[in-house]
Write a structure and sequence with these properties.
Elements: H1 3-15, H2 28-32, H3 36-50, H4 65-76
Helix pairs in contact: 1-3, 1-4
């Protein structure tokens, strides 16, 4: 499974939405109305899923799926 698919799976399961709702270029706040608590939970879930440390500044309500992938992939290469 590629990084983008895994990010979508993690977020879809956590936020109880369908993968199809998580479009690559749409921000989390606009696409599914993520609140601040869900953002914290999303960061934690992504950290666990990928085994990386993410800063809350790296993943915000204005992040797109592509932004999130672009923040995670360099950390996976280390």
């Amino acid at each position: 499974m590629d990084t983008k698919s895994k990010v979508k799976d993690v977020l879809a399961n956590l936020l109880k939405v369908k993968n199809e709702e998580l479009k690559d270029e749409v921000t989390l706040i606009n696409s599914i109305g993520v609140d601040s608590t869900e953002m914290v939970e999303s960061v934690i879930a992504l950290e666990k899923a990928f085994g990386v440390k993410l800063s809350p500044k790296e993943i915000t309500k204005n992040s797109t799926i592509n932004d999130i992938v672009n923040n995670i992939e360099p950390k996976l290469a280390k």
